[in-house]
Amino acid sequence: MTSDSKKSKQQNISFSMDDFAKALEQHNYDFQKGQLVRGKTFEYTSDGAYIDIGGKSPAYISLREASLDATDDIKTTLPLQEEKEFLIISNQNDEGQVNLSIRQLKLKESWDDLAAIAENNQTVQMLVSGTNKGGVTGDVKGLRAFIPRSHLVEKQNLDALLGQILTGNILELNPENNKLVLSQRQASQSALMQKIVPNSVQTGTVVKLQPYGLFVDLGGITGLLHIKQISNSRIDSLEQVFQVGQEIKVVIIDIDEIKNRISLGTKMLESYPGELIEKFDVVMENAEERFEQLKAKHAE
After folding, report:
1. Model confidence over 87-119: pLDDT tens digits?
2. Which of 51, 74, 64, 147 has the alpha carbon at shortest distance from 106?
3. Which residue from 2, 118, 122, 130 has the fewest beta carbons nearer than 10 Å?
4. Taking the complete model, does pTM exceed 0.70, yes or no?
């Protein structure tokens, strides 16, 4: 080979290496905190693993960030050369390396899922793992959740709830403060409300008297029998007709699931104004018959 040929070949090699270096410099390795990337595990360390995400330097993930659940076996969680999705949780250091997390990615997905659940007014389940003076704590989709004592069905013996799975509505959802507050009582009431049939006769128990009407327990959920809905005749004193603990049959007039309200009535069961006041037992005895006759009459 002539000297000119050797020189030409060296120049070509030199140009190729220069081009490669420039290409590396021009390539975009600007990974940002909060970015989702895909990568493969290629090396384990004593407390984590290195992940190839196509950058200048390999990314790093610690054992704590490798899984939503605590684990000591990173090799099972992150098998070699298996591609997974990661969340970047740090900006690049001087060498271009970033830290990754699967745990925080899963937590973000949990917050997003719960936001959709809250928007649709759906329920979630919480495994109770702790108690305090204010209520009970537990796990919901890997997140720490809290149910205040006032929003529990069982408010007295909280220790008895340990290990139980409670169904609740979302009262407060704040990812920035890691705050997730539930209400078991609201969820229980919502479930009961779905069993109450509108425009039907239900049997309940008077639990409270107020100047404006009666509160009636319908098997775990309370409805209001307003004084104007009791009789077609004026009532001077509710205490003269009703008492706490008294059984009563009522018509379900309206169910407002958003406001958690059930409106009740009895005046439509009367054959004449004031019959309920004068002959309460008679009206109650065949309340269902009376209401069916009323509905048939309106259907004519």
Report:
1. 999 988 888 899 999 999 999 999 999 999 999
2. 64
3. 2
4. no
